[in-house]
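Sorry to interrupt, but I need a hand with the structure work. Could you write out one complete protein record for me, on any chain you like? Just paste the record in under my message, thanks.

. . .
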Amino acid sequence: MIDRLLVMVIGMVLMTAISVQLLLCCLPLFRRIEFDAVCHQYALLMDQSGGLTGTAAANLVQTLQDRHFTVTVVQAPEQAAYGDIMTMTVQATFTDMRLTMALQMEEVNACFVYEASMVCRILQAFDAVP
């Protein structure tokens, strides 16, 4: 009777640890999807306007910071000529928790990089200088 109870308690502890580990392994995937979705929105904005303005880049950083990312690099042209290749690069880190082999929680920094290249399709009309 006691042996069955002991096996059941140990089994439940192991199942709980495995369930927590699986959940913690899936969280970075969901964070990556969220990071890519936000960056993709601003890449579409860059495509529509022929570049990423300073206010749009600041809004991108603010949006990612609101979602608890630490943005390290944002590179994108503010204005591009028709036919030029525009490349947007965003790097950010996110502090995540992992379960160690000793069933202890430790902090791990996950680094995310988003890069999108596209051809500028916006024809800019520049004033002629006399």
Observations:
- The helical segments are 2-49, 54-66.
